[in-house]
Amino acid sequence: MTEVDQYINENKILIVDGKALLFRAYFAQSYSSRRVEDATPTNAIYGLLHYLFDAVNTCNPTHDICCWDMGSKTFRSDLYTNYM
Questions:
Q1: Contacts of 26 by beta carbon, 8 Å cutoff, 6+ apart
Q2: b vs e for 37-68, b when ≥16 Cβ sit within 10 Å of the residue's Cβ?
Q3: pTM above threshold 0.85
Q4: Which of 10, 51, 52, 53 has the lowest tally of Cβ within 10 angstroms?
C-alpha cells in the first residue's frame, strides 16, 4: 500500500460548493425573520453554516473544504442569464 492509499483510507474529506450552498440557504430560509439591527438579512450565512455543520456532524470528516466559484462563468450562467 502506498502512502497516498494509506492517507485516503485513513481520512474522509468533505468538499462543499460554498456558493451553491449559500444561494440555496438564501432562498430556503426566511429572510424577513433573520436580520441584524440595521435590517441586513442574515438568513444566507445562517443557512450556510447550519447546512455545513449538519453535513460535518452527519459525515464526520477528518477534513472540510469549502470551495467558491469566484467571478467566472459556470453552468449556472448558462441556465440563468442573470446569475452572478
A1: 43, 44, 47
A2: eeeebebbeebbeebbeeeeeeeeeeeeeeee
A3: no
A4: 10
